[in-house]
Design a protein that fits this description.
Number of strands: 10
Number of helices: 15
Shape: globular
Strand order of the largest sheet: 3-2-1-4-5-6-7-10-8-9
Strand content: 15-25%
Oligomer: single chain
Largest sheet: 10 strands, mixed
């Protein structure tokens, strides 16, 4: 086992619970050895869960009773962080040595020592919450400083454009800038895209005929994100040993495949799955339908690198149709001309996304320039608020300064310029 899985805040823990449900329940349909990367030697999951309020982690307590989680790895506070990045990042005044940050880092240190060979951290969190964005950013920086050689892969969820909190643009701005400095890669999910995808899937289900006004629940959105993560990070045949033992290399090989340039590290994920023998080329076309093609100003987007993970390939049918699938993906993603090998692929005979004898799924992760739409939108809206001095006193109260905002604006501008330069 090489990774520590760190869940921060309400969003990070709710997605984490769906993720571990897939690992513990869905894994029963695949090789038992595939669970090895997620377990310590005593059979407990290698996860650390932290939140500033106890409500969300009560569900994780059930996994403790079932022997899945280690109770000492559930770090719970008694007061929230008020959707304030600064409050989450710096913590309450005079918090002392038993604060959330210190307790989390202590549990994290013990968990790394249980690894056979610690290779990195997978961090689950949101970009807009006080705990997820603020404490998540701080933990990312602390882990980078304490374990400089280890990888950090962040699973980050962006808020709805329509607005979840008056502070979400500040929080997203500051968190994205921190991730750019400390993380090796950011698997970026958007609440709006997850909502749209879930509604699309529900509209195709037979039950939609009896309830045409069905709405997507938060749980179904979390399940969709966890399903995409399972498609990418669950062990694949390509990366196992000759004796079919997984070493848990998927997160780090993902970074190697889709982050060829360290300055551009924001990753977009799409997924299509079916319970019938639909052609792989058709699944590839379905993933492209969910890919943003143009910016609001009409400029076409591109991908600098793409990874396709085919699961349920029991008869090597994916390999037999490899050329047309890769051609479709290369054309649909407008792969950058400067990368001579822009597309990588993994295959596995079992489909953990939707386990059944005939199911298959295709999960595509790309380093896609559509992230610049988010960076520009967040930067513009946060800058308007900053110019009006709106809500800044809430951040100054906990130690955040104007210079932190100015540095974050500069970081996001630099990332946007890097993506534009990559297309040229």
């Amino acid at each position: 086992m090489s990774a520590v899985w760190l869940h921060v805040g309400q969003c990070g823990n709710q997605i984490g619970q769906e993720w571990w449900r897939i690992i513990t329940e869905g894994a029963g349909h695949s090789c038992e050895a595939d669970r090895y990367p997620f377990l310590s030697r005593d059979g407990k999951l290698g996860a650390v869960c932290v939140d500033s309020e106890p409500k969300v982690l009560r569900k994780a307590q059930k996994l403790v009773k079932h022997g899945c989680f280690r109770e000492s790895n559930l770090i719970v506070g008694q007061e929230g962080r008020g959707s304030n990045w600064a409050y989450g990042y710096y913590g309450p005044p005079n918090e002392g040595e038993r604060g959330l940050l210190q307790r989390t880092m202590e549990s994290f240190r013990k968990e790394t020592e249980r690894r056979d060979c610690y290779s990195g951290t997978v961090l689950f969190h949101s970009l807009s919450g006080g705990t997820g964005a603020g404490l998540g950013a701080r933990l990312c920086e602390e882990i980078r400083e304490a374990y400089p050689v280890g990888h950090i892969l962040s699973v980050s969820v962006a808020p709805h454009q329509a607005g979840e909190s008056p502070l979400q643009h500040y929080n997203t701005l500051l968190c994205l800038a921190a991730l750019q400095r400390s993380a090796d890669g950011v698997l970026l999910f958007h609440n709006d895209e997850a909502l749209s995808r879930v509604l699309s899937l529900q509209s195709r289900s037979p039950s939609s005929l009896s309830s045409p006004q069905a709405q997507a629940s938060l749980s179904s959105m979390n399940s969709h994100i966890a399903s995409c993560l399972a498609g990418l990070l669950y062990p694949v045949h390509n990366l196992t040993t000759p004796s079919r033992i997984s070493l848990g290399l998927e997160p780090w090989e993902l970074l190697r495949s889709v982050s060829p340039v360290p300055a551009t590290k924001f990753l977009h994920t799409t997924q299509a799955h079916t319970r019938s023998t639909v052609l792989w080329d058709s699944l590839a076309a379905s993933t492209l339908q969910m890919l943003p093609r143009h910016s609001p100003s009409g400029n076409p987007h591109y991908s600098s690198a793409v990874l396709a993970v085919a699961r349920g390939d029991q008869c090597n049918s994916f390999l037999s149709s490899l050329d047309p699938v890769l051609r479709r993906l290369r054309h649909g993603h407008r792969c950058a001309a400067w990368n001579p090998f822009p597309i990588d692929y993994w295959t596995d005979p079992q489909d953990v996304v939707s386990p059944s004898p005939s199911s298959r799924s295709l999960t595509v992760c790309s380093n896609h320039s559509s992230v610049t739409d988010l960076l520009q939108r967040v930067g513009e809206r946060a800058h308007d608020m900053f110019q009006a001095r709106a809500y800044l006193h809430w951040y100054h109260r906990y130690g955040c300064e104007d210079q932190d905002f100015l540095q974050a604006f500069d970081t996001l501008r630099t990332v946007t310029e890097e993506y534009r330069a990559g297309e040229e």
